[in-house]
Amino acid sequence: MEPIKPMESNTSNTFNFVDEETMQKLQIAFGVTVASIIGYTYYKYFTQSDVKSVDMYQGSDQLNGRHVAFSTCINYVDEPVYVEVEGGLPYFLEGNYLKGGAGVYDVVTDSGQLFTVDHWFDGISVMHKFEFCTNGAVKYSNKKMNKETERYIKKYGRWPGISFGEKRTLFQRIIDLFSLREKAGNNLNVTIKRIRNKFYNLTDTNKLQEFDVGTLKPKKECIDYSHFDPELNGTSSCAHGLRDLNTGEYINFSQFGGKYKYFSLNDDGSVKVYPEFTIRSTYNHSFLMTENYIIHTSWPFYVSLPKLLWRKNVEEAFKRYEGEPSKFYVISRETGEIVSTYAFKPGFAFHTINAFELGEDIVLDFLFYEADDFSSVIEGLHVDNLRSNGEFKLGEYTRCVLPNILTTTEEKMVEPTNNYGTLLELPAINIDYHLKDYTYVYGIGEGFESIVKLDTNTGETLVFNEEYQVYGEPKYVPDPEIDTEDGGVLLSLGTCTKTKRSYLVIIDAVHMELIAKCYAPSIIPMGFHAKFIHPEELDSTYMLLS
């Protein structure tokens, strides 16, 4: 028997039972683990502000300027309370004004630190309601729509999953790869829509959160559009689905990877899914519609899926189709086929306003941003910039005409037909003129400091503003006894940055003059979109566009 030979020395690998390739993998894994521990420790203990008191983020002595309107909601009113009304209420104003959107920007974590949301679009959802009673009184209530996300942040001190604009360091992204944590809810904080006699919170994902208008209580589990038809299983949709008041149809799309399926949902339970079409995948927050056509807006910006999965941040995942124009696809509401395509200068729009047919042409109105301004527009809406009274851009009212939609067989370039230079955001019109030739559009002005009325035919404007006030999206409510387009009133949530009081302001839509204010019991943070619900809308097939 031969003697056992000693093992040969291997200076490159002291663990002789592990080959060279495996050792390199172990070393990388060890390095990643150490880096993750260091990164998490730095993030948890050195990147968040200490909290001395709740007043730090909503207290009368701590805030000033626009920070007042972008503070965090801390007073919750489950049972409606009567509020102070200053001025006389219009006789026809009966029903519920709902305002959703961002309401919580700051969360005190369990470790006593302050987490502040980076971007306005990520503000945690809170619903506010002003109820106009038959006796002329007004009640107010509110409710959190997304306790799960707030609870998660409170426990872990960080944003869960994918956000619009929450920044993550390299260390934090590595931690996310190894994190297995509980479900943290859906932050559906953009629009309020009525679909099949139920009310939902929406955003640009394929998610819907049902809630009760009376109690504001949200359902815990969300649905998506595949709830109505299995074919509608895309990952994204559009926050601004549109309703045809004449047919009662709610129209939107489901999309994944550039494969789009438009659909209509009717209160009678019917579903119409249009033929799928494939084009470049783009970021869509809204689209347009006429009596006979859907106009799909394709702006030359998209969200890169690999970047989104790695950064978990929509803002950092945006990319541009360099050298490509904006495009409008005209789709028949009867057949679902694309009947014509038009090109427009590069840029984008968060919000469309209205569209209507004029003979064989289609007129489109929207709030346009130049392509080169895309990044600065998104950056301007970060919470720290809004709170510090920093500048942010508004969209320019833009009209263009798509000519000869039935005879245009090749892609045709179109140009803007107006040069008013009017800057607006969060637009509203008289809903009775949706899909029709119209005159007036309303929206917020520069710095949220005014509400603007624009005559689309002449470019003339009227402005409502008061010193130290900021305003949210205006909502038009018609006077049933006046048949003029602007004969009703505008409702908008306002906040006085000097007295630190919030209120629902009621404005004469003809002369843009103050009628009344309904004061809330505490500050209402600046949200996004609102909806006015007439009483009959809760118990009939009466429809309103929102």
Q: Could you characterize the architecture of this molecule?
A:
It contains seven helices and 38 strands. It has 546 residues and is mainly beta. Strands 24, 25, 26, 27, 29, 30, 31 and 32 form an eight-stranded antiparallel β-sheet that branches. A hairpin with a 2-residue loop joins strand 10 and strand 11 (198-202). The protein is globular.
For the record, give the distance between the C-alpha atoms at the N and C termini, rounded to a whole number: 92 Å
**Parts with pLDDT < 50 across at least 5 consecutive residues:** 3-17, 45-56, 540-546
Helix proportion: 10-25%
**Structural class by helix and strand composition:** mainly beta
Tell me how many strands there are.
Answer: 38
Labels describing this entry:
8-stranded antiparallel sheet; disordered C terminus; 6-stranded antiparallel sheet; 546 residues; disordered N terminus; mainly beta; 38 strands
Short description:
The chain has 546 residues and is mostly beta strands.
What's the layout of helices and strands?
Blueprint: H1 20-46, E1 49-50, E2 81-82, E3 85-87, E4 95-99, E5 102-104, E6 106-108, E7 113-116, E8 124-132, E9 138-144, H2 147-156, H3 170-178, E10 191-195, E11 198-202, E12 208-211, E13 242-244, E14 249-256, E15 259-265, E16 271-273, E17 277-278, E18 288-289, E19 293-298, E20 301-303, H4 305-311, H5 314-317, E21 318-320, E22 326-332, E23 338-344, E24 347-348, E25 352-358, E26 361-370, H6 374-379, H7 383-387, E27 395-402, E28 412-413, E29 423-428, E30 440-444, E31 451-455, E32 461-464, E33 469-471, E34 475-477, E35 489-496, E36 501-508, E37 513-519, E38 530-533
Parallel strand pairs: 23-28
Antiparallel strand pairs: 1-7, 2-9, 3-37, 4-8, 4-38, 5-8, 6-7, 8-9, 10-11, 11-12, 13-14, 14-15, 15-16, 15-17, 18-19, 19-22, 20-21, 22-23, 24-26, 25-26, 26-27, 27-29, 29-30, 30-31, 31-32, 33-35, 34-35, 35-36, 36-37
Helix pairs in contact: 1-3
